[in-house]
């Protein structure tokens, strides 16, 4: 099983002390995976920040029925870690499917225009994300 960016994995996230739906944003050469989390609610600190809100994409169960049972949000305001490719492969039964096409297509524009990421991290995401920008912003 190859770890695929823009696909969903249900993995234990120790900071939250629970399993969460996580979407790989990129994989580092050493095998560490960095994820965008899917949240069932948008935290207040994101709602109150226009910059962070730009990085939050709504996801509907109708478009993501393989893994969502209620409205959720892909939070692209930061990437989180905690797993390696090998650890994920050993988990078994954690793969849930690809995010919907519209959400997948929206991520590159958010990232390339983001003021939250350094150029190196933007490049890692853009290089590995399966949907490319049709025309990079000027």
Examine the secondary-structure arrangement and name the CATH architecture.
Answer: Roll
- Share of helix among residues? 25-40%
**Which fold name corresponds to the CATH topology?**
SH3 type barrels
- Average pLDDT works out at 92
Shape: globular
In the CATH scheme, the class would be Mainly Beta
Describe the model.
With 138 residues, the chain is α+β, with helices and mostly antiparallel strands. The chain has a single domain, classed as SH3 type barrels (Roll). Helix content is 28%, strand content 30%. It contains five helices and seven strands, in the order βββααβββαβαα. The protein has helices spanning 44-47, 50-53, 85-91, 101-113, 119-128, and strands at 7-13, 18-27, 32-39, 56-59, 72-75, 80-84, 95-98. Strands 1, 2, 3, 4, 5, 6 and 7 form a seven-stranded antiparallel beta sheet that branches. A hairpin with a 4-residue loop joins strand 2 (18-27) and strand 3 (32-39). The radius of gyration is 14 Å and the shape is globular.
Helices and strands in order:
Blueprint: E1 7-13, E2 18-27, E3 32-39, H1 44-47, H2 50-53, E4 56-59, E5 72-75, E6 80-84, H3 85-91, E7 95-98, H4 101-113, H5 119-128
Antiparallel strand pairs: 1-2, 1-7, 2-3, 3-5, 3-6, 4-5
Question: Any key phrases for this structure?
Answer:
138 residues, SH3 type barrels, seven-stranded antiparallel beta sheet, 7 strands, 28% helix
Quick overview:
With 138 residues, the chain is α+β, with helices and mostly antiparallel strands. The protein has helices spanning 44-47, 50-53, 85-91, 101-113, 119-128; strands spanning 7-13, 18-27, 32-39, 56-59, 72-75, 80-84, 95-98.
């Amino acid at each position: 099983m190859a770890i695929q960016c823009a696909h969903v994995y249900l993995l234990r996230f120790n900071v939250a002390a629970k399993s969460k739906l996580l979407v790989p944003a990129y994989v580092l050469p050493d095998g560490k995976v960095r994820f965008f989390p899917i949240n069932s609610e948008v935290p207040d600190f994101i709602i109150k920040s226009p910059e962070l809100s730009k990085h939050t994409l709504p996801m509907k169960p109708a478009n993501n029925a393989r893994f969502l049972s209620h409205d959720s949000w892909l939070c692209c305001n930061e990437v989180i870690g905690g797993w390696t490719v090998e650890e994920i492969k050993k988990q078994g039964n954690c793969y849930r499917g690809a995010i919907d096409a519209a959400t997948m297509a929206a991520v590159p524009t958010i990232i390339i225009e983001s003021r939250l990421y350094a150029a190196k991290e933007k490049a890692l995401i853009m290089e590995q994300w399966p949907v490319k920008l049709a025309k990079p912003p000027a």
